[in-house]
Amino acid sequence: MKFNKIFTLALSLLVATAAFADGADKPTPEDKAKKDYSSWLPAQGDMSVGFSLDPLATFAGNLFNGNLDNTLDDLAGEPLLYRHLPAPCVSIMGTYMLTNELALRANIGFGYSLKQDNFFVQDDAALALDNLSNAKVTDRMNSQILSGSFSVGIEYRVGKRLPVQGVFGAGLSYACGMATATYAYGNAITELNQNPSMHSNMPATEAVTPYLPNARLLSTNATDLIHMVGVYGSVGIEWFVAPAIALGANVNLGIYYELNPSQTFVYEAWNTITEQVTQHTELLEPASHGFHFGTDNIGASLYIAFYFDTK
Q1: 3-state secondary structure of 287
Q2: Which of 192, 221, 251, 268 is at a distance of 20 to 30 A from 16, taking alpha carbons?
Q3: What is the spatial distance between Cα 253 and Cα 231, in angstroms, rounded to a whole number?
């Protein structure tokens, strides 16, 4: 993507320029200790916009491990509490400095995708009339994903003279999401063709009941969104490589409550009792809820932040 390539090039030039400028006059360790970096650091009234560097780290790592299918994902913020949900396609992270040390931090993300995959499969009706027929019909698989996240909190900064600040924070997070799928088949179920051909990428048939021996899936549905709400704490650092430009790393620990709706599967099959095509709805999972806290909730992220003076 053009944006990602430009951003990667700009980041490389930024780091190289910072390294060149830092070594141009070859300051002594004593000079570095005396240098005051306070003008580089954010102050009251400043705001920032940040982007996760995790896609860049993965991309760089794949350059050295022989991965020939290396792609750079969209650069965005790093949303919290999404691990059991479809991740937002993009999110924005930012801060507003309430004082020189205290800041309001927020992240908002949203994603929606609707995709249709089509697959050719042999036409059973045409093949029954002509065993040399090469006619095709189309199986279709539609998937839909909806996701969103929001977090807001307070962070406190430690360090005034060095280009590195410790950043400690806490806040609230909310996330929601849903993933559904529907399936359509080119070959119809009939009395003479009770188990018609379908593409291998479509879900395999199942015997959902004794009288529906070759049921094929029509849809997977959730009755509502998955909801997650919780609190988080974070600890990290920001290294200012240039005035108002920082590379950051943090670790988050979250405690959250999760609400999962019931999940249903809808099938169709030839009914051996009624001798006709029947739809059958199967409750896959009942609604559930739970409170979660543990090491599986810890997430680390790398990011770059750009600060702007709003005064």
Answers
A1: coil
A2: 251
A3: 9
Amino acid at 162: L
CA torsion through residues 62, 10, 26, 302, sign: negative
User: What is the reported pLDDT for 85?
Assistant: 75
Q: How far apart are CA 246 and CA 239, in angstroms?
A: 5
Question: Alpha-carbon dihedral of residues 161, 105, 296, 109, nearest 10 degrees?
Answer: -140
In single-letter form, the type of residue at position 95 comes to T
From the list 90, 162, 110, 95, the residue with the least C-alpha distance to 310 is: 95
The runs of H, that is alpha helices, within the chain are 2-24, 29-34, 54-63, 124-129
Q: How far is CA 285 from CA 8, 168, 175, 222, in A?
A: 44, 39, 21, 10
The tokens of 168 are what? Answer: 């400690």
Q: How many CB atoms lie within 10 A of CB 230?
A: 21
Q: What is the DSSP string of 153-217?
A: EEEEEE-SSSSEEEEEEEEEEEEEEEEEEEEE-SSPP-SS-SS----TTSPPPB-SBTTBTTBEE
Q: What is the DSSP letter of 34?
A: H
Contacts of 2 (CB under 8 A, 6+ apart): none
Q: pTM of the entire structure?
A: 0.72
Phi, psi of 292, rounded to the nearest 5 degrees? -125, 135
Which among 69-73, 77-81, 232-236 has the top mean pLDDT? 232-236
pLDDT tens digits, one per residue of 293-307: 766 666 667 888 999
238 closest CA partner among 298, 304, 300? 304
